[in-house]
Amino acid sequence: MTGTVAAIEASDFVMRNWTAGETGPVRIGSPEHLRMFAQMLLDTHNPYKPAVIDWPKLEPDALARVTSLPIWDIAVQTEGRASIRVKTFAASVEEPLLRQALELDADEEARHKVVLSKLVEAYGVKLAPEPDYPAPKHAVWAWLVTGYSECIDSFFAFGLFETARRSGFFPEELIETFEPVIQEEARHILFFVNWVAWRRRNLPVWRRLTFRLTEIAVWAFLIYERIGIARGLDEAGEMQDANFAMQGSSAIGVDLSPAELIDLCLAENDRRMAGYDKRLLRPTLTPALARFARRFLKP
Ligand SMILES: [Fe+2]
Ligand SMILES: [Fe+2]
């Protein structure tokens, strides 16, 4: 094995497996808990460089499938917005370790955007002109919107990505090239849900209430946004602004029932979270909603 391959495999293992140095139980909301989830994000950072990614050459049919996927504009723009939102929130945080972890999170979002731009460039996908990414006015709101969006979208992306891998929709090399980005989103949502739990417990009682109300408002906004996206999709007859998660399996040309897709998302969610310290909280809301919806679907 060459040194480079070994180094890549080592980084890959590091980004998926992490246990804190502390032993014994850790109380959620405690300073140890904060140290733990911030350190998890920092220690599992994979230092790959998008500029040196060797994009696999695709056969004409695979190339056509990749370039015709109507997700690239929205994907690039989502990463651009996520980066500035997380960065703005990071700047508002005083606790040094938490701030450092948030800055890393924002940098990884910026790197996702570069990865996507490189992919688009490598395969000759035409992108719509990009909008500006202004800094949000309300840092906490923007952070919560990004965090909970990622909780929803990553959950479905896990299942769709696995579907695309199994079906051969994307060639294996492309799946492998893209895999770290998906695992990074798993780390982000793991970090995010632990931050939410830590934050809730460290607020005075009356502010806990306003925090809860803000979270509910964020969820209402995200549901509204996704219904709007789904409607826009019908009218326009295309997916240009759609959430890939909502329409994904048909877009990747796989005949998967909604129940099967949910089962795959749940299994992949568990698999991607399995390597991290068991004392950290796992994202539970989206999987619970998916499990609930699953009950009404035919197997
Ligand atoms: Fe991202
Ligand atoms: Fe992310």
From TrEMBL:
InterPro entries: Ferritin-like_SF. It comes from the Bacteria. This is Ferritin-like domain-containing protein. It comes from Candidatus Rhodoblastus alkanivorans.
